[in-house]
Automatic annotation (TrEMBL):
Keywords: Coiled coil, Iron, Metal-binding, Oxygen transport, Transport. This is Hemerythrin. The lineage of its organism: Bacteria, Pseudomonadati, Pseudomonadota, Betaproteobacteria, Rhodocyclales. It comes from Thauera humireducens. InterPro entries: Haemerythrin_Fe_BS, Hemerythrin, Hemerythrin-like, Hemerythrin-like_sf, Hemerythrin_metal-bd. Residues 76-103 form a coiled coil. Residues 15-126 form the Hemerythrin-like domain. PROSITE patterns: HEMERYTHRINS. GO terms for molecular function: metal ion binding; oxygen carrier activity. Belongs to the hemerythrin family.
Amino acid sequence: MTTELFHWTDEFGVGIQEIDEQHKELVDLLNQLHTAIQEHHGSETSRKILDKLADYTRTHFAVEESLMRVSNYPDFEMHKQNHEDLIGQVQALQEKLDNGQAAITFELLHFLKVWLMRHINEADKRFGVHFMAHGGETQWSDHVESAMKKRKWWWKFW
């Protein structure tokens, strides 16, 4: 029996629906990676999930940073640097995996989980407060909500 590595609750919400939905996807991918390791699905399967997680993370960061720019977020540079630091660490790991110098382990999962939880609860929530205070749309329109629930069309682009 597998258990979730990261259980999403509304307490992790930052108040911006698009960002919260993307965070849920990141959590889901992290849990998929956890399941693959826990159930011994093999390094190839784990690597594919890790690569998908890395790609989705880059896209999520781009969306988040775009919202920060349009709302003139004062901590933008520091927040962006946090994103770049994580991307650099994951790229270094991917290179080590390619060279046989590393493996995807529970320790890696723990690091990613702690990083994501801390980043959401601290940096992203601070941005959410700023975004809402500066008139940002926090909810999708009914039309977008309907489209998003029908199918996850955005995977084609990400």
